[in-house]
Design brief:
The complex is a heterodimer of chains A (372) and B (291). With 372 residues, chain A is mostly helical. Chain A contains 16 helices and two strands. The longest helix of chain A is centred in the last third of the chain and has 27 residues. Chain B has eleven helices and two strands. In chain B, a hairpin with a 2-residue loop joins strand 1 and strand 2. The chains are: A mainly alpha (372), B mainly alpha (291).
Chain lengths: 372, 291
């Protein structure tokens, strides 16, 4: 009996690999797109525009993160923005402590704490004097938090819609707490007036090409790391869990462990994206971990094609990019959002695999025609 | 806490509960019987509120006079949306989250572009603008009206589900679509009407809360999230569960916010729900709608 199941499952994995094209051509495509991203600053020398492009790339990272957990492991995480927000707050805290004394109270106490009558730096802010700690925290706090949440959900075999509801609820809870704990977090206003990031005497100016390259490098690393995960045995098991959770369990795999790993890996990318976002936006705000951005990530992946890391990333960059270029005019933006709603409904109805799926089937069609 | 304060919090809790029930009822019907996760539910609430505003502003109808039109209008809209979009997605329940979210965005933008993004106000019917003294606590007459109205709507819905041939057919389809259709039940038609009824209820909810809150395009979003928690807590297939969970959530919110503040109350209630879903995904009350 088990042999039969094994064979069948192998079969699905094999056809799956064939459907998504062979690895070499995939790596080449991914590399070409990344190369194009690196070329952008040599074409555009408008600082404001470059800053905008940087934010698009960060949204692309978020889409990669969700594609990994939703598209590959089948975890519809509606709280992806939680990791993003936590990362951005970690970076904002350390940059806040480095601001020039004008913006701060006595002994470098952040300005909003002075306004809130806080007298000494709260304990949880203390370690953020160290930049290394902040960077590690920006990745590991979201990872640990997500893995804990994942462990809590998946050990209880929570699936499907309930995963979506729980992750959404947790996001809302953390968001409410951050807004409520104004004395520590800056409340509604978030953490503003940050110092410019400086590492080894090298400044990453939010409006310069240095920040853009920094983000492009991390985007490329994340994209290929995620690709490597999906190509590994673990990645295959992710997809098997997504398609037939029970069968994977019958093989003796601990499904929950794989799901916890998937949600953790995705949180690491999102946390990193959050830190980078603080660098280019020069503030952190509770809206970074809002329901709106969390749902947007889902939309980008759905339109771009959640089964493809590159598709999701491009989906995010294209959608946010168009939104950004239209935001100059209020009516344009409103109309465009309306059109976006229609596009989205149509994509869900007729292209469940998103744009990447449409492109793939097109390539397959051309290939099979050539073979004839 | 002295008795009057407790009484006052109890009544506040009931008032919150009645609004929750009003919003959640339509969602419970749709989710419980068709399995569609309707994220656009909040937008039906919003459209109901805007209809109340439009009928008041352009036709000078007061809230009572417009209730019927609002129900028909939002129900019709719900029916159209079901026919055009939702019915293609019954086999893919997770995709309904995405599609209905898109519909929600379309509704919000359509209202923004037509009625504008500014706050709108709906007048409270003058007969109910006063407050009534109840066991030593002053309660707004309008809030009592909402309480009675949502109770009445619940009884009507229960009657519809359990005492009419429509309800029997709907429950038959939920239980076993193949057998139901071999008995000649047209599931397409029944699902369409169910969606329309749920949307109509949401519209009524929006109209009734419009005098209490300000009306703006994004007003529906918080409601849909709250309503979902009510439905999940109560158990997806239990109408009675929806009532009890609305009361539990309403009272919890009221008492915790009295002890600390609104934000903490909301956060604690959500955490409680998360833990509950983990250990009892079928909800607190899983007595089933199906026979």
């Amino acid at each position: 009996m088990s042999a039969v199941i094994e064979k069948e499952s192998e079969l699905t994995i094999n056809t799956g690999a064939k459907r998504f094209g062979n690895t070499t051509s995939q790596v080449i495509t991914y590399a070409l797109v990344c190369a194009a991203i690196f070329l952008v600053p040599s074409i555009i020398d408008d600082a404001y525009l470059l800053n905008k492009f940087s934010t698009y790339l960060i949204m692309g990272m978020l889409a990669i993160a969700l594609s990994l957990s939703w598209g590959y492991a089948g975890i519809l995480n509606l709280g992806q923005a939680l990791s993003f927000g936590l990362g951005s707050y970690c970076m904002a805290m350390t940059l806040k402590l480095r601001t020039v004394p004008v913006h701060t109270g006595s002994e470098g106490l952040p300005d909003f704490m002075v306004w809130n009558n806080v007298e000494t730096l709260p304990l949880i802010w203390q370690p953020f004097h160290s930049f290394t700690f902040a960077v590690l925290a920006g990745i590991f706090i979201p990872v640990l938090f997500s893995m804990l949440l994942g462990w809590f959900m998946f050990k209880g075999r929570v699936t499907g819609v309930y995963v979506a509801i729980i992750t959404l609820a947790v996001l809302v809870v953390v968001n409410l707490l951050i807004i409520d704990q104004q004395r520590i977090t800056g409340g509604f206003n978030g953490i503003t007036d940050l110092a410019t990031l400086e590492v080894f005497g090298f400044e990453f100016d939010a409006y310069g090409s240095s920040a853009y390259y920094l983000i492009a490098i991390f985007l490329t690393i994340c994209l290929f790391l995620a690709l490597a995960i999906t190509k590994s045995k673990t990645g295959k098991i992710f997809q098997a869990i997504r398609d037939h959770e029970d069968r994977v369990r019958y093989f003796g795999y601990d499904v929950a462990n794989y799901q916890v790993f998937a949600i953790g890996a995705s949180a690491a990318i999102a946390g990193l994206a959050g830190m980078l976002y603080t660098i280019v936006m020069e503030f952190a705000s509770p809206t970074f971990l809002g329901v709106k951005i969390s749902l947007s990530i889902v939309i980008w992946c759905a339109v771009g094609g959640r089964h493809s890391l590159l598709g999701s990333m491009l989906g995010a960059i294209i959608i946010v990019g168009m939104q950004g270029s239209l935001s100059e005019s209020e009516t344009f933006l409103e109309t465009w959002t309306l059109v976006m709603g229609f596009v989205f409904v149509i994509v869900v109805l007729f292209m469940p695999k998103g744009l990447a799926g449409a492109v793939e089937s097109l390539i397959l069609k051309i290939k099979s025609r050539n073979q004839e | 806490m002295d008795p009057t304060a407790i009484m006052s919090q109890l009544i506040t809790g009931l008032s919150i509960a009645s609004i929750l029930l009003l919003v959640a009822l339509g969602l419970a019907i749709i989710y419980g019987s068709t399995g569609v996760i309707n994220l656009a539910h909040g937008e039906f609430v919003m459209l109901g509120a805007y209809s109340a505003w439009a009928l008041q502003t352009f036709f000078s109808l007061n809230l009572f006079q417009s209730l019927f039109f609002i129900f028909v209008l939002t129900a019709l809209l719900g029916w159209i949306i079901e026919r055009v979009v939702i019915r293609h997605l019954y086999a893919r329940p997770l995709d309904t989250i995405l599609a209905t979210w898109g519909i929600g965005v379309i509704s919000i933008q359509a209202i923004r572009l037509s009625a504008g993004g500014e706050l709108r106000y709906v007048e409270m019917p003058s007969q109910l603008a006063s407050s009534v003294s109840f066991l030593g606590v002053d309660v707004s007459a309008f809030r009592i009206f909402i309480l009675i109205f949502s109770a009445a709507l619940f009884i009507l819905t229960w009657y519809l589900m359990f005492k009419t041939s429509f309800g029997v057919k709907l429950r038959a389809i939920t239980q076993n679509p193949e057998v139901a259709s071999s008995f000649g039940i047209n599931s397409d038609r029944i699902f369409g009407l169910t969606f329309a009824y749920g949307a109509g209820l949401a519209g009524l909810a929006g109209a009734l809360i419009s005098p209490l809150k300000s009306v703006y395009p994004e007003m529906g979003t918080p409601y849909v999230i709250d309503a979902f928690f009510v439905v999940v807590l109560g158990g997806v297939e239990s109408l009675m569960g929806t009532v009890f969970s609305a009361i539990i959530l309403g009272e919890l919110t009221s008492f915790i916010s009295f002890q600390s503040n609104d934000t903490i109350a909301k956060a604690l209630v959500l955490l409680a729900i998360v833990i509950l879903i983990r250990f009892r995904p079928q909800g607190l009350f899983s007595s089933k709608v199906r026979g």
